[in-house]
Here is the input.
Amino acid sequence: MQFWKKLTPEQIHQQVFEALGKNVDYKERLPLGLPASHLDEKVFTPQGAMLREAPFLSTLVQNPNHIGCHTLGDSESFFAGTQEIERELIALCAVDILNGAQAGDFDGYVASGGTEANIQAMWIYRNYFMRERGAQQAEIAILCSEDAHYSMHKAANLLGVKGYAVEISPEDRSIRSGGIRKAVEQAQAAGAKYFIVVCNMMTTMFGSVDHPEPYIKVLEAAGLPFKLHVDGAYGGFFFPFSKIEHTLDFSNPKVTSITLDAHKMVQAPYGTGLFLIRKGWMKYTYTEEAKYVQGLDATLSGSRSGANAISVWMILMTYGPHGWFEKIHILKYRTEWLCQQLTGRGVKYYRHPGSNIVTIHKSGISSDTAAQFGLVPDSHIDPTWYKVVVMDHVTVDALSQLVEAL
Ligand SMILES: Cc1ncc(COP(=O)(O)O)c(C=O)c1O
Here is the structure.
């Protein structure tokens, strides 16, 4: 581990307040040109003594704006202290969790969520194909599995490119070369020559995991240019700790970018997606007109709260790598317990061995029971599957009540 270590609450307190000390203080320095200030004091009445004990709340109240991408060099100097913590967070995720060689090899930022991070990736690759390869929009296609998150379809719509869903095998939710070939041929028939591939590190509904190799083989065999993004919004903070061999991280040279989402498994506040990409790619989404922003802006979001980055950093540093592994191990144990109970009762379900999602077929659970326990259906109109996500509050006690009801 190069960046990830366990820190005491005192060390975290000291580092966050040091960072805030390097940011602008709206009360002391009176910057007159920013459309920003500390949080409204009529509503968010800060109690000095309480805030001094609370680094995250203090950051919220100081209200740093992390507009832009801070791994690229120049950034807004008003918030330099907390940007430094965001940079450390990006390095920790890229190197210590996702197996990148060194921090200097990566760019990234804390996005509003997994949707934004996925769109950011596809935006970059669309612009790359158009700028460097002379592609027309109609010649660019997004390829992902049928089980991929709907943000891929949102991206296709926004970016004016076409999306193609690769059939999955209903038994094990895996993608197969045949399905990929079929989707590629369909895209080619519609004029596609350049491909943006999205592989899942745990899908939303099933927790299934895609292997990139079948995509790579099919596209390379056909001589078709492609870029590969990994959507780890669900699995990025879980699957890498499952000790299952995979090629979905930066140790695979074909993977150019990865989405993570701390407001899922990390229990961080909403607004904590993470976008990570190899150096040299952010330039494709620079908006040159963002001239009033120091360092310009290559991100999708514009203004965003620096407190979000601080919250994720604080959580990861509180656990440290071993503490995090232990936490995931406990969730895996509970997931396995549920699977054993379902197997024992002959209930049909899907679970990837590296995931904490158990998806129960409708043959094994009534819609009333699913609603009673807050299980999420694959479709609110015509459900076939209902998922259990084994989170911190989903204990064996809670799961045993579901099992009894089955
Ligand atoms: C696999 C996957 N990707 C992307 C997203 C989108 O994340 P967000 O809702 O944070 O935008 C989700 C959300 O559930 C997801 O499960």
Remarks:
- The chain has a mean pLDDT of 95.
- The longest strand covers residues 194-200.
- The CA atoms of residues 97 and 309 lie 16 Å apart.
- The longest helix spans residues 306-344.
